[in-house]
What we know:
Blueprint: H1 7-37, E1 41-43, H2 45-49, E2 59-65, E3 71-72, E4 78-84, E5 89-95, E6 107-114, E7 120-127, H3 136-153
Parallel strand pairs: 1-2, 5-7
Antiparallel strand pairs: 2-4, 2-6, 3-4, 4-5, 6-7
Amino acid sequence: MRIIPKHAHRRKRLGLILLLLAGVGTSVGFVTMALNENMNHFYSPTEVVDGKAPKNHTFRIGGMVRTGTVKRSNSSLDVNFEVTDTAKNVQVLYTGILPDLFREGQGVVAQGKLNDDGIFVASQVLAKHDETYMPPEAGQAIKDAQKLKASLKE
Length: 154
């Protein structure tokens, strides 16, 4: 006749609970990593120039298309332009067909990555859709840059 110690059932139960907690913790970790990879943060041109934006990680940049900076390639769909928040400018390179409403002096939000040369390589460009619309993040970035310029003049 085999005698089972009183603690054996408790030890088994504790082992199962610890295994379950480890599995839940691992699952939560994987979900958090996946969500973090798919998040696109917004940065203003000033923040990008100041080095606050991550290199080689997808994010959004917004502001106005700087007048006189749009340059289209004759042999491909490459377009170079600058996005400004009136304080600082970031050069953007985009390959593709731009939205119909894209033009100089208008609001734009671009999604892509900052390369090692400090050029924003856009995978998507969104233009404002009417005369009064400005993407909220881009509008706020422009207001912040104007306040900064005003404070520096004083």
